[in-house]
Amino acid sequence: MQTRTGLLVWWRRIARHPGILVGGAITLCVVLAALLAPFIAPYDYAKINVLNSWAPPGAEHLLGTDKLGRDVFSRLLVGARVSMLISVSVVAVTLVIGVGIGMIAGYLRGRIDGALMRTVDLALAFPEVVFALLVAAMLGPGLFTVVVALSFVWWPGTARLTRSLVLVLRTELFVDAAVVCGTPTLMIFWRHILPNIVAPLLVRASVGIGYVIMGEATLSFLGLGIQEPTPSWGGMIKDGLSALRQHPHLALYGSAALAITVVGFNLLGDGLRDLLDPKLRGR
Amino acid sequence: MKARWKQLAAVCAVAFVAWSANATAQVLKINLDMDPPHVDPILYQENISSRVLRDIYESFTWSDETGANHPALAKSWEPLTGGRTGFRFFLRDNAVFHTGRKFTAKDVKFTLEYMLNPASKAGNADLLQTIVGAQAVKAGTAKDLEGVKIVNDLTIDVEFTELNPSFPIATIQFVDSEFVKEHGAEWFNKGSAGTGPFKFSRWQRGSRVELLAHDAYWGGKPKVSGVTYLIIPSPETVLAQYDANELHVADLQESMFGQVFTDARYKNQLMSGMRASLYWMGMNPEAYAPFKDKRVREAVSLAIDRDAIIKGLFKGAATSFDGVVPPGLNGYTNELPKLAYDPARAKKLLAEAGYPDGKGMPPVTITGWPVIKDLVTYYAAQLNAVLGMPVTPNIIERTTWIKSANAGELPFFPSRWTAAYMDPVQFLDLMWHSKSRFNRAKWKNAEFDSLIERARVTSDNTARMALFKQAETMVLADWAGFSLPVPVTAGLVKPNVKGIKSSPSGYLEIRGATIQ
Lengths: 283, 516
What we know:
The structure holds two protein chains of two kinds. By secondary structure, chain A is mainly α. Chain A is built from ten helices and no strands. In chain A, α6 packs antiparallel against α8 (185-221), α8 (185-221) runs antiparallel to α10 and α9 runs antiparallel to α10 (249-276). The longest helix of chain A has 37 residues, at 72-108. By secondary structure, chain B is α+β, with helices and mostly antiparallel strands. In chain B, α8 (294-302) runs antiparallel to α10 and α13 packs antiparallel against α14 (446-456). The chains are: A mainly alpha, B alpha+beta. Chain A binds chain B through residues 46-54, 67-69, 223, 227-229, 241-246, and chain B through 234-236, 239, 255-256, 258-259, 262-263, 308-309, 311-313, 370, 373-374, 376-378, 380-382, 384-385, 392-395.
């Protein structure tokens, strides 16, 4: 009874935030598309048919074909898979690194805090495209380059957020009590600090996915990211630009997919922030 | 009184604007895909630097839009006498360098010695190997090129150790010896030392290369005051700038053909012509073991649908031929085995070679550069689909591609070759002789080498062409490489611009341009 009542309360809160509903619906659609792409894509994304180049949207090809006669709808679906794979990987990596460094810096303070935060500042100084160029020069363009470049750019923000949250938490009485009781530091991190910073990190993660997807599209647009024949939304937009006047469908559909997905994750993130912020509860 | 001064200032301002608009209106603006790697006429030239330098520096001869050769800096030449092998060149007496100095025999000798000096890293030094004394200059044991003798200011003898009948039409771009000596190693960035109709003025990397008309050009002062090459990597931007009248001539990449050839707006502004180039597939057996088997190489050719490429990717604006000496050249023949699209036979050959449906073949990349990304992707997908060959596309920056290809590092690659002059030696010798540094597929055949070496020293044209035909047949029979569809040369030219011609060299000829 209590659980059902608790769920009902949460549902009522969610219903009061249309952003979460819309963002959640979009996110769910994108995730499902990514997961089910191999089963629902009507054509092999890499199958070429140059004699059917730039076919307009129609019955045979729902969203038309590209220059090599490949089905755009199938490539958008597989592109969603690629985008989700990269964004989840980057967010996971940056959470591990950023949260770890942020917690250590915020809890231990002193010289360790200073050294770690200067490292964060240095990492923040690198524009993602410049860093991606360096990584691409060393490793060659591709999926791994994108993950490395975007992880390097995204983790400092997570570290800073975590540090600021930990700075507040470490002054709480329950943390002092744990210290006085001789609880090991790692146990304090795991039992007392981490559970209390999950909510804002969750918000950052959901907003972050949107940014990472945009970042991956940018790198692929520049030729540093996903390579042929694997589709990426950024690469598809770039390919579509060469025929924008006569065959706008490729660039437009690629851009629409990207925009809708990023908006969806941003709405979800904003909604979660409002939902989980105790100061905003009851609104 | 004040009102009068204001009126005068306004009139002066209007006059200045009109004057400056008029002054810049006669500069021909044309696009370049990227920055040229350099502006040194002595270094190896690829397509981009060639386009810029060909109107600045000249050779003994030049070729017109039909590929025919005409005298340029040499009015005429005749064979040497007295038992010597070579030519006596009679130089043009009214050729003047951009520096104002007259072109003389001293500059010819200087340029040849400079090219043989290893420090110059001359791209065409191979053309001079058989000049008497060339090896000593190359080795640094002599400074004077013994086989080149100045008879007088306008006459020079060039003696060879063996016949070199195509030397007069070779692309050797002569430079002002005084300018080069004065300015040292980086002379080409400090000014213009050629005799061509345009002189190098300025290069803003990433933005433009500016040339000015050479008023004292022997062929007559150009009718435009200069040429500005705007560096525009993006084909879409080229079209946008052309439409906005910021370009007089849009030199089109083949990726734009589909759009431009079907757009009614450009119908009367489109100029196109055949290109005497070879687009071919390189398969390097030293870098990928399956290519050691001729059957695998033949299977790759049979799996490629050339008609589909011409219709689908080039929208009909391309042609295909069966040999490796393109149409338009003396020595071209269409009496060669047809290059077929035969997937069934391709699979059979691959299975016979021990790779049924591609099983057992190590993964390989097919490497191209950004402009041909679609073609590279097509080839990879087609070979995957037809043969099961585990090939993935790999796109790298063009200058890196050229270095890697010339070094024999690429296992599998589409390549292009446009002759510096219209002779089969430019294709067969440079591309497949085992000692040529442009033998990118690293194909070796001693009998082929022998045929080419004999052709180099044969002066009788009929006999020479017969040798080249035998050599071409050998390349094709061994599947050392095979031709791919060649797009036409195409460009858009504004209606008020006249005198532009497309040439088989693959470039648009602009030296006769006028802007009305």
